[in-house]
From TrEMBL, chain A:
Keywords: Cell cycle, Cell division, Mitosis, Ubl conjugation pathway. The keyword Cell division applies. InterPro entries: ANAPC2, ANAPC2_C, Cullin-like_AB, Cullin_homology, Cullin_homology_sf, TPR_ANAPC2, WH-like_DNA-bd_sf, WH_DNA-bd_sf. Gene3D superfamilies: Cullin Repeats, Cullin, Chain C, Domain 2, Winged helix-like DNA-binding domain superfamily/Winged helix DNA-binding domain. The keyword Cell division applies. Belongs to the cullin family. It comes from the Eukaryota. GO terms for biological process: cell division; metaphase/anaphase transition of mitotic cell cycle; protein K11-linked ubiquitination; ubiquitin-dependent protein catabolic process. Residues 409-626 form the Cullin family profile domain. The lineage of its organism: Eukaryota, Fungi, Dikarya, Basidiomycota, Agaricomycotina. This is Anaphase-promoting complex subunit 2. GO terms for molecular function: ubiquitin protein ligase binding.
TrEMBL record, chain B:
Residues 96-117 are annotated as: Disordered. InterPro entries: RING-box_E3_Ubiquitin_Ligase (IPR051031), RING-H2_APC11 (IPR024991), Znf_RING (IPR001841), Znf_RING/FYVE/PHD (IPR013083). The keyword Ribosomal protein does not apply. GO terms for biological process: anaphase-promoting complex-dependent catabolic process; cell division. Residues 46-89 form the RING-type domain. It comes from Schizopora paradoxa. GO terms for molecular function: cullin family protein binding; ubiquitin protein ligase activity; zinc ion binding. It holds the Pfam family zf-ANAPC11. The keyword Cell division applies. GO terms for cellular component: anaphase-promoting complex. This is Anaphase-promoting complex subunit 11. Keywords: Cell cycle, Cell division, Metal-binding, Mitosis, Ubl conjugation pathway, Zinc, Zinc-finger.
Amino acid sequence: MATPLGERAFAEHVKSKLDATFQKINDGAPGVSGLAKFTKAWMYGREFLFPRDIRTQERKEFDQEAFKETFEILGKSKQLWRVIETFTQDLRRQLPLIDEEVLEFMRQYQETEDVTIIRRMIMRVAEWWKAWAPVPELGSPIMTAFNMEFQTHFFSILPPTFPSAFKALCASTLGQPADPEMWQTFETLGLLDRYENLVASVCYEQIEARVQETCVGEWSQPMLSQLRSWMADDIVQWMIMPYARAARNPEETRSMLHGVGSRFDFHVCKTLCDLRTTEIFDIIVDFPDSMPALIDLKECLQRVDQRSELVSTLRSLYDHLLIELLANRKRLLHPGADTKDILHQYVSMIRCLRVIDPPGVLLHKVADPVRRYLRERPDTIRSIVSSLVGEGGDLVDENEPIQPLHVQVEDYSDPNWEPEAIDAGPEFRTNKPSDVISTLVSIYDSKDLFVKELQVLLAQRLLAITDGNFDKERRNIEILKIRFGEAALQVCEVMLRDMTDSRRIDQHVQSQKPCLMHPTIISKHFWPPLQTGKLQMPGQYKEILETYSKEFTAFKQDKKLRYLPQLGTLDLTIELTDRTLDVHVPPLEAAVIELFSTKDEWILDDLSKELNVDSSAVRQALDTWVDYGVVSEDKLHHFVLLETSESGSAAGPSRPAAPRTDKSLKEFVGKPAVVENEAAPVMSAQQQEAEQMRVYWKFIEGMLTNLGTLPLDRIQTMLRFAPGYSRSIEQLGVFMEAARREGLVVNTNGLWKLSK
Amino acid sequence: MKVTVKNWHAIAHWRWDLGANEPENDDIDGEGDVCGICRVPFEGCCPSCKMPGDDCPLIWGECTHVFHMHCLLKWINTAASKHQCPMDRRPWVTAERTVAKSKPTQEPPLANAPPLP
């Protein structure tokens, strides 16, 4: 048996609770009238809020008075939350009513793909929503609860195809008149919050499509501004609906769109930037025409941090290109054109990247492999220098201001100072005002190499001048002086003055005693080493030389002339029995033909002895005359003069003089690819080096004779004592290896000795 | 056959005529003598000059030593020189050229030497 005491206490407790509740509900009204009133109100409230099936039942009339009274009573007795709870439960029970309709709409959509069905569906769901929504007078908690219940259910029944359908619906509104009602509904149903990404992606896709459509391969006009105005005209207009419906005036619209707008603007930049990055190689190739594309890219890069992508794209492109080149599978099939083409490409790249990134950080990062590659090529300097002096190269832009090659010193007081770009490496040095040439010259550590090569080139050009007009060279040197500094080009200055002096001297000599010869008299120490030889000019030439020499000494009493007999050119007239030839030939050729005027038949060796010239060179000279059809080789090494032209071979007229003359000219201009060693009048820097090494060979030979065998490093140490020796041990190793191939030395266990 | 020269563009270089003791047919490659003071070839120019040749002439001493004129004058103008030839310490006397001169003014006497740059 339960304790009666406990039972009673429980009963007491229940009773007191019941009383309290009754009191609360009855609100001190007489009898149970309060309770009855409450019950009525409760019934009315529930009835009022109850979510009906709108297909079958009309919504009840909204009675302001009854409503007010009802909820006053419910509020007073603090039972409002119970009403809400009941409403929520009712709602849960009723919600599946919409399922049928929603699914039907979706089914239709899947069949037709017609987005208006989706719109209709959403509007219909909104009708349900409106019918069920509690009146706002009930306060926001009930509204929130309702929305949550409603949306949760609505979203849960939507099939997986809905998001794409919704996106299609959004996209379909682009360019259409605004549809505020629909967007308002979207928001009401929480669709905008839930599918915000979808709405944004509609924009993103529009942007991407637009970029693809209008910008691919279109480099000749600035696209970014066009894209932006397109954004402003088409997209922003649309964006007002999803993002700034609530705006009451343009001011508000602008501020509401600001955040989202800049997001889309970023996307425009990023898309364009991606596109241009993939196109960058062709943009560079197209350079001057692709300027607008570069400016776009620059602007995009400022907005979007994709510099590293650009760098890696460029680098992989160039790595690829260079690997191809190195593997001899050239993009450009002319082996001879390589260096020039690479240089050209490099220069375009310099110009392009300078547009994108004036401080040159990008260039610094990208250019390294190209520069390394160029440094390894033997004719890079020559190519650069020849374009410096304006010879067949558009590497140098005429309009570019010429700037001295100064090592930049940091100017701490520069008010326009800007920090280096964030991706600049530690070895990066800002060299702000550097032009293309400075960048090219900086491929090499010192500019001396350039000056040297320049000197060689200048010498070649000056020596080839016969009409005394070297204004172009003078102008070039003046320009180059600004770049390389006066001092570095002093030597060139002397060379130019030699030219003027030669002319003056010649004018004087001619006035004293007219002479057919007009020599260029040079100051030997200021010219690059010239090809020397001991050619003895025979016959009339000798007289001319001597006469001139005498006249010169008469004019310049304390000076003498020393001819470089193998250099220069002669214009000759060759009169033969049946024809006359006018030719333009080097002295050796002239000397050879002169000898034929004394004797009709010559043996190669005799000619060689007579002229004091190596027989292979004489052979070449003879070939010239064979080409002209003046001489023929009737037996091996035996040449006869053809006083009358050989009709059979018909060499003379059918092989005109032109090609040969061309060649002799070319020898002067010194195209490295075609020059035979002995033909180039001026030794290239490389040949000079070989020449110097020959001197050192004497030393090496001496030490190996005296000391027997020596390791490479001992040879190097000893050579250091030789004046002017500046080779590295690696270079020496290469040289010794070459000597070994020639059979001069043998190498056993790293020890070198002379071969017996 | 007759070969007629119409025009000849030859290349030559000049050298100082240092007198008869020089072999006429000397090696064309020869670096030539250098000035005893600056160690630059006579055909080059002294350190203070930029242009070789007439702008930087030579000077002969009676002791037969030859220098760039500028080099020697600079030396002579120092107190330490005591007006001696730097090679043999004999009193410096500017010599007439070994080669006969038609214009004696070409070799300026020491007293009228132009101021040094």
